Amino acid sequence: MKLWQKNSKLDPRIEAYTVGDDPILDLNLVKYDCLASIAHTRMLGKIGVLEKEEVEKLEKELNHIIELNQKNKFHITLEQEDCHTAIENHLTEKLGELGEKIHTARSRNDQVLAALRLYYKSELDKIEKMIHDFLQSLQNLMKHSGSVQFPGYTHTRKAMVSSVSLWAAGYAESMADNLSLLDFTRELIDQSPLGTGAGYGVPLNVDREFTAEQAGFSRVQQHPTYVQLSRGKLESTLLHAMTQIMVDLNRLASDLILFSESVLGYFRLPPALCTGSSIMPHKKNPDVLELVRAHYHRVLAGEIQLKTQIGNLISGYHRDMQITKKPVMESLDITEKSITIITLVIDNLKVDPEKCKAGLTPEIYATEKVYALVKEGVPFREAYRRIAREFE
After folding, report:
1. What is the pLDDT of residue 319?
2. What is the pLDDT of residue 162?
3. Helix (H, G, I), strand (E, B) or coil at 71
4. Strand runs (DSSP E) across the chain, as ranges?
5. How far is CA 381 from CA 118, 159, 251, 369, 384, in A?
């Protein structure tokens, strides 16, 4: 039974269209909805709506649902619409009338947001750890091969001498900035919407601070109308952080594709990381890097979709918000997988010192020659012209 079900029967075509992908997507949220529901249940006990024994029974069954979900044994049907209904139906089936009490002082609006934000926080923790692993891989590469020099490029043409350390450290520092962005995003998301109902509060004296603390939020989101206004806005900040990570991986992948190409050969990709051709038996293709490069555009598209989705809406909740879930979840998944793949590539990347040395052709030292003359007292522009004539 749906949470909003009354006496009329919904046309099945309307049901299928409005439910969409939620029964699948919401399997990611079951654990977090249960954790938020446990916090809400404890608050209901604190203010006297539930007896101590009722709180204990609900909490025990909510933890059981988490266990079922971890074993892929908790299912959400089309008729249930989402995890929130499926969980309440389960509680009512197992605990009878007690299961019907849990929605006291709560709307599906603040319930959904609480589960989503706990999910986002967990995903951000995973991504932060993955980035630290990636940074360690870069450090290992610099330790083993950092002193090897090879050409640096501008305009996809040889420019000046670079090195493995100089190249890798640029991406490391950029990713460190991304970690700062993740910290800001986490702080923004880490506020509890519980107790705001559908955006206009609830006619009951609830303890929002207690619920927030029990759910693991650092603070309460104060204004109920802003709770609904912030849906999509906070997610767009989250996806912006993902695009910043992915654009770094995109460019790193492009570097590796170019630098491992046989004509240059500065880096080598082991066969275990390459795929082949169905017609050309010699091919060892960097498909995985090409897909990392391409997936950046999917995450960027998700950010743009989300930001356009929340525009032109008056204050308050709208069903448009439902379809913001998919681009966020997909983008988080893509980012996590891409960081893991790039880390794997860096861990197995081989530097070819001979190829790197061969790439250091005379023109790449032109700027150094200019500054050698400058040190002798020749004006920079005159030194520039003298060296330029050598390469005409």
Report:
1. 83
2. 98
3. coil
4. 149-154, 157-163, 191-192, 219-220, 267-268, 350-351
5. 59, 18, 34, 13, 5
Looking at the chain, how many residues does it have? 392
Calpha distance 58→180 (Å, rounded): 39
pTM of the model: 0.93
Low-confidence ranges of the chain (pLDDT < 50): none
In the structure encoding, which two tokens stand for residue 125, read together?
């923790």
Q: Are 161 and 364 in contact (CB under 8 A)?
A: yes
Cβ atoms of 256 and 286 closer than 8 Å: yes
DSSP state of 49: S
Predicted local distance difference test score (pLDDT) of residue 53: 97
Asked if 95 contacts 57 with a C-beta cutoff of 8 angstroms, the reply is yes
Neighbour count for residue 215 (Cβ, 10 Å): 23
> What pLDDT is recorded for position 32?
97
Beta bridge partners of 162: 150
Residue 89: partners with Cβ closer than 8 Å, 6 or more residues away:
1, 80, 99
3-state secondary structure 91-159: HHHHHHHHHHHCCCCCCHHHHHHHHHHHHHHHHHHHHHHHHHHHHHHHHHHHHHHCCCEEEEEECCEEE
| Residues 159/151, Cβ–Cβ less than 8 Å | yes
First to last CA, the chain: 80
Domains and their CATH numbers in the chain: 12-101 (1.10.275.10), 108-358 (1.20.200.10), 361-392 (no CATH)
pLDDT at residue 15, as a whole number: 77
* Type of residue at 257: I
Give pLDDT, residue 50. 97
How far is the C-alpha of 268 from the C-alpha of 156, rounded, in Å? 19
CB–CB of 257/265 below 8 Å? no
